[in-house]
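re: that complex we talked abt at group meeting.

here r the seqs, copy pasted straight from the sheet so there may be weird spacing, ignore it
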Amino acid sequence: MSSTATTRPNGLALFILPSALLFTLFFFLPIGLMALMSVLTGNPVVMPKVAFTTRHYARMIGDPFYLEVIWTTIRIGLVTTLVALVIGYPLAHWMARIRSRTGHALLLMAVLAPMLTGIVVRTFAWMTLLSDKGVVNQTLISLGLISQPLKLMYTETGIVVGLVHIYVPFMVLTLTGVIGRIDERLEQAAENLGASPLRAFIEVTLPLSLPGILAGSLLVFALAISAYVTPILLGGFQIMTLPILIYQQISANFNVGFAAALGIVLLMISLLLVIAYNRALGLVSGQRELQ
Amino acid sequence: MQTTASSSLPVAQQAASMPVPGPTRPYGRYLYLAVNIAILIFLLAPIAIVVVFALNPTPFIQFPPVGVSLRWFEKFFASRDFMHALWFSLEVAVLTTVSATMLGASAALALARGNLPGTRLIVATMLSPLMLPAILTGLALFQTYVLLDVGRPTWGLVAGHTLVTLPYVVRTTLAVLHNFDTRLEEAAQNLGASPLRTFFEVTLPLIKPGVLAGAIFAFIVSFDQFPVSLFLVSPGNETLPVTLFNYLKFDLDGTIGAASVVSIVLAFVVVIGLDRTVGLRSYVKL
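got the structure back, here u go
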């Protein structure tokens, strides 16, 4: 921006080194090792003879069970993302458009409060709500609306409800930023020209917030497919997702190679999402520059 | 978060001073509010439920609650396992906050002021632990520690936590660095301050709120961190979320509720405490 800025790195650039070291030793090296383990027949430290193999990947593709697990993970991720978007959008819109400062602060606190509560705690909360003798069922039974408890827990629906609750704040915060940048006068202009508030929203605000919708959705999807606690506790060990399978391979089977191969598959899906997310955010900032 | 709130303020004031078109369809407005209030209830009710169960004396889930008792809090504070886990979590969170804040803030400074080539790619890489599954970070570190035969040391856990909390510090510090006027630094140097003095007397005080916000995030994320810890804790030396998780697999009594309330309160105390002590003072200085 300033013409005096040189293009050569200066002394301050050295401050990047500690983080670079951390990432090299504790991020790139471990992920590289994981990729390596996924194509080896065993642990090279304890086993004298290891060879390269594709059997871990072949096992995944050859067995419909593993493909089903991958599909379940993606399906839960997709439904969670969709519901989080539908729930998150109105709240984000309110937060972006509310005029009172106190109101904005209170809404922000309401969105951040669940984020300050750990994942395990929030999953526990949903277990108390959704179990057979939980709050929802007991309330419905005492109201005489149902005679048998509804099966809410140990189902995919239960998992989705828990995941939506955990990840909807991420959607709200992403969307609020984007909606807040849309000039409110555009909506007012549309309304002054005779459009109903709903039509002004659908034809002006919604299209302009598309990059935010994309970014928020990719973020929530990436977080939802890598969730472990919520699917395992609300699914009651009956519904298998990729992270659950990965941990099981380590803790129960100690099949490090297969766990690594599963990890690489999850990593590839996530990397694609990260790239798409950065593109979406690029769209957002591009839009900002145009204004 | 703080920067968003403060930067949106002028816009909000501007909007408030503009003529507001009256709600042409009040029913639509009511529906909008009703939907939003329902969403807020969905967000906050589970947290309220946790508090209710922490105080409810029955040893199983019962709704509506039958009374108020502190027996689960007594059980929680008397439990050696839970207390050990609580202190271990705090220790890991403090170590993580210190290392993530120092590494993250200096990295952000290098990225914003160091004229590094490929800044965008470096930023994307440093933020990537936020979106890449944390369970993979845990798995990859676990495999590495097994291969190197180092066991499961506390520093290994702190390194994993630092990796997933660093992005918050980098992001909040970068946001402040991008927003502030570099002419302030130039002015200080024109007035004869050395680059070092400029850094300590101009740059550092100005980026302090961003660094602080990042540190708060780092503490909370580390304190609540589960997927990385799952692979890296050793039996008998577990963090609170892992202990809670193991307990939840078999038991669903009020102890979990009490433990949850304690960790929620702790998170809030840290946020408010840091904001009041360090935050306010830095604003007074400004």
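couple things i noticed - Residues 1-5 of chain A have pLDDT under 50 and may be disordered. Residues 256-290 of chain A form the longest helix (35 residues).
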